[in-house]
Each structure stands twice: as structure tokens, then as C-alpha cells.
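Lab notebook: predicted structure, single chain.

Context: the supervisor wants predicted structures on file for every construct in the current expression panel, including those that have not yet been purified. This is the next one on the list. No modifications to the sequence; it matches the entry in the shared construct table.
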Amino acid sequence: MSYKTKLKIGEFSQLMQVTVKTLRHYEQKGLLLPYEIDEWTGYRYYTLAQMQKLNSIRAIQQLGFSLDEIRELYEDGTHSPSIRQLTEKIKETEQQLQKLIDRRTRLINWKNSIKEIKTMEKFSIQSLPEIIVASHREIIPGYEAIGTMCCNVIGPEMQRLGCKCPPPGYCFTIEHNEEYKPTDIDIEYCEQVEELGQDSDIIQFKTIQAVPTAICMKHYGPYDHFYESYTELFRYIEDNGYKITGHPRCCYIDGIWNQADQEKWLSIIQVPVEKI
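Prediction complete. Output recorded below exactly as produced.
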């Protein structure tokens, strides 16, 4: 009698790169049953045969077959689609593809019409005056943490320190990483205040020098898509005979504190420049 290697569900999950939740779902569907379930502990064990079957299920699922359709194949004992089933799936896929092509065309046309309107008002050339700011520098896990940091850390501390912000309000961030990092972002948040205050462990006060010329661009959408706007902005700077002279600022006009829909978030990227 040959020996069967048995793996606990967690081990099987890790080796096959599939979640335990998915394995339990397959079991409930009657599609991939454990080789053995310990009646005392409830532990589920899988073998090489389950590995091979899972790979087969994945391959068929990637071709567009549902789990119910795949289960029927195994119940029929065929384990693979017939010529007729493949022909039907090809026809179904072609119909879906045509719908996606039509949708893509409509989306492109809509996007282009919006861009034509927004491009006219997207860029501006401004001078940025000397200002006093309350500054907080922190390494955050990702761009999505900016809103939480502002609401839960910076805002309460500025209120505790009695900071007064001149209307209409001006805040921005500057990144200090020397290279791109999707996590552990070294970011400095600055908010304009009326006067220098007493530094704390969280807030430091300082004066930001004036910027004679800055190219400014509106960015609509989530913060982890800034790279799209940077690409367009830097092309605009180069095409119009400017060179960059300082760190870009990201100024937040409307965001999570007011809009649940990220696509409606509005930021302004401000890049110090001078004419070549």
C-alpha cells in the first residue's frame, strides 16, 4: 500500500497559493473535497490528487467556466469541456468581447470630451507668497493614510496649540523620499497659519520662502494616481520652456473629509519653476 502525503488545509492553502476561504467555498460547492476530515479535531487534509485537481479547476475557470459548470464536468466524469461546450464558450466570449469594445469606445469618447473641457482650465502660472506654516513630518504607510493623519493627528494638535489659519486656508504636502516608495513615504504636511507658535513633538512652525513662479495643475482622483498628473505636468513644463527649481507641493482642495467618492477628490500640484 503506497503512502499518501497529507497536508493540513493551511499548508495546502500556502503551497497552492489559494486562500482557506476559497478552499472552503470549493468544498461547499462539492467541487474540491478534502481527502480526509479528522472526526475529533475537524482538521481537513489534502493530498497530491487534490493539488492536481485544483490546478485543473483553475485552468478551466480561467477559460470562463463557472464553478457550477466545472462541478458538472466532474460529476459527468469527463473532467474537461466537450467540443460543443467549448464552441458555446467561444461564442459567449466573443459576445462579451464586443460589449467590452463598445464600452471602451464610449468611455474613451467620454474621457476625451471631459479632458478637452478641463485642459483649458487645468494649468495656471502663479506666484506663491512667503507664508508661515505649521509643519508635521512623518513616515506614513501609504497615500491613503494622509487623510487619517490630518484628521486624527495634525488637526487636533493644531487646535490644542491654538493655531489660527487665514482664510480661505492653504495646506500642502512635500515628499522627502529620494526615490519612489509605495510604502513608508516620508512626507511633510504644511498648513498656513497666521503666526509662529511654540513647537511641540508633533507640530513645528517655520517660514516658507516665496516662490516667484509656479506651474500649477489640477488633479482629480485618488492620491496614488498623482503619477498620471506629474507626467502631464512635467511635459507641460518642458514644452513651455521652464525648468524645475524646487520640490513640488501637493495642495489638497477637496478630499476624504468632504467626498466619499475618490474620483471627485481635487488636489493642486504646484511646481516651482523658472524660464530657461
